[in-house]
Design brief:
By secondary structure, the chain is of the alpha/beta class. It has one domain (4-148): 3-Layer(aba) Sandwich (Rossmann fold), CATH 3.40.50. Helices cover 36% and strands 13% of the residues. It contains six helices and five strands; from the N terminus they run αβαβαβαβαβα. It has helices at 4-7, 20-32, 45-53, 78-87, 105-113, 125-143, and strands at 12-16, 38-42, 66-69, 96-100, 118-121. The protein has a five-stranded parallel sheet, with helices on both faces. The termini are far apart.
């Protein structure tokens, strides 16, 4: 058993976040953290799934050791992404941490029922993000033993759970949360 820091020279984080400002704050916080970390940003859950499934132009994108996921995403919500990822026998091994503005008890409960690994309310400002990222790094990279996650050769060739569509043909519809 090993931690992410023990087995990865540079841990890989997939950040699924549609807010440009929040994504920049997370990247800056990781740059100031103890462990050099590569952060890949997906602006939608669909792009996140394509990265994980090695589809399209994402064949050579680093496979993540951990995923930071916003709930309030356009088209496919973070909760729907979580359901798809945790339903996949390979992807479910990747720790997924919700990082959201939501303080809803219903969101917390729904994500834990869907096997999320953690739930963090987004902080305010760079100092707050640095504290959250240091804490995540301390626990998920240095303390907690996790299974090694890497893209299996068969992942892009396997049949995946279908991406939900709305009756109007749009992916997942608009997220109803504000």
């Amino acid at each position: 058993m090993t931690t992410i820091a023990e087995r990865a020279e540079m841990p890989q984080v997939l950040l699924i976040e549609d807010s440009h400002e929040d994504a920049i704050l997370v990247q800056r916080a990781f740059k100031k953290a103890d462990i050099p970390t590569h952060v890949t940003i997906a602006r939608t859950a669909e792009i996140g799934l394509s990265i994980l499934r090695r589809e399209g132009g994402f064949l050579n994108t680093p496979f993540p050791d951990i995923i930071l996921l916003d709930i309030d995403l356009p088209y496919i919500s973070g909760i729907d992404f979580l359901k798809l990822a945790k339903a996949d026998s390979e992807l479910r091994l990747i720790p997924i941490i919700i990082m959201t503005n939501s303080t809803s008890e219903a969101d917390l409960l729904e994500t834990y029922k869907t096997y999320v690994n953690g739930f963090v309310t987004k902080p305010i400002g760079l100092d707050g993000y640095e504290q959250v990222i240091r804490t995540l790094e301390e626990y998920w990279f240095k303390l907690s033993a996790t299974p090694e996650t890497h893209a299996p050769a068969s992942l892009s060739r396997r049949k995946h759970a279908e991406i939900p569509t709305s009756p109007h043909g749009r992916l997942g519809g608009q997220n109803s949360r504000g």
